[in-house]
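FORM 12-B: Structure-to-Sequence Request
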């Protein structure tokens, strides 16, 4: 188990380090990074979510119970973070990064671990987790950005931001293609898949490039708060909701796994595009990725025994 976790996390850490090295040595030039972030946010990440949700095999799984547990635990967790805003961050932009660090997840690590533990069944359970959490956390994050990023937003502009957000659009498209049975046409599916596969390495390079940048809120408090919430509060909340709804077995373990993952690399891209504290977000991602090498084996050893 430890080997599987390390084999998943080490490449992520290396890509972050490579991004930092490329920028610090001026290999690609400063103009490359904003363009790469924009490409990832508006094209590659939506393609990743569309393909993953459109091609998921969900037959024979406790989809409704698992989705209910994940939705409720995510909403409870997000609400707790908002209530604790004054304790975890000094300004709105920094709070948006703490919020993303507390509720978003790295689906690459989650899917790899689920597949390694349960095989094809784990892949299907990971797809359910993505279908439940990805749209939910993106809607919550858009609302938090609209409220706390410092950009004045009317109710109409918040609604517009939610429905025009490329990540939410990608999730909606994937779910619609899956539910209707249309699926991705044979000639288009490989293209969407290839674009989605490019999202993760490029996003991690951008995260590494952002490390070391000056920004408000890089003290220990927001970093510790985001990580404590992600690795302790949210998993415990999810466990309690599993007990409440009677979700057990493989579905419960995968639900707990996804709620205990380090935050997503796409969090940084979202912070850059929507007025958040992007350097703080990059440091939260890097710290949580390293901490996950310790926290995930502990969590899985407790749940699998």
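FORM 12-B RESPONSE
SEQUENCE OUT:
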């Amino acid at each position: 188990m430890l080997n599987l976790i390390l084999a998943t996390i080490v490449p992520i850490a290396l890509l972050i380090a490579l991004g930092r090295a490329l920028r610090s040595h001026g290999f690609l030039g400063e103009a490359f990074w904003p363009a790469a972030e924009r490409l990832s946010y508006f094209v590659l990440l939506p393609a990743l979510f569309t393909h993953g949700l459109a091609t998921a095999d969900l037959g024979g799984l406790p989809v409704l119970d698992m989705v209910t547990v994940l939705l409720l635990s995510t909403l409870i967790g997000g609400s707790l973070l908002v209530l604790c805003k004054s304790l975890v961050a000094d300004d709105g932009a920094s709070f948006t990064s703490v919020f993303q660090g507390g509720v978003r997840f790295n689906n690459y690590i989650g899917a790899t671990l689920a597949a390694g533990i349960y095989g094809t069944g784990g892949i299907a359970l990971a797809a359910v987790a993505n279908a439940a959490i990805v749209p939910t956390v993106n809607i919550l994050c858009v609302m938090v950005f609209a409220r706390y990023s410092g950009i004045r937003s009317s109710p109409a502009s918040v609604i517009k931001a939610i429905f025009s957000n490329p990540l939410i659009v990608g999730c909606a498209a994937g779910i619609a293609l899956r539910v209707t049975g249309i699926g991705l046409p044979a000639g288009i599916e490989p293209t969407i898949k290839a674009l989605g596969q490019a999202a993760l390495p490029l996003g991690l390079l951008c995260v590494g490039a952002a490390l070391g940048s000056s920004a408000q809120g890089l003290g220990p408090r927001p970093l510790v708060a985001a990580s404590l919430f992600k690795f302790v509060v949210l998993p415990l909340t999810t466990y309690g909701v599993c007990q409440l709804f009677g979700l057990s077995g493989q579905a419960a373990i995968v639900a707990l796994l996804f709620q205990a993952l380090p935050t997503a690399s796409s969090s940084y891209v979202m912070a850059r595009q929507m007025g958040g504290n992007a350097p703080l977000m990059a440091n939260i991602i890097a710290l949580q990725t390293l901490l996950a090498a310790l926290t995930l084996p502990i969590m899985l050893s407790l749940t699998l025994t």
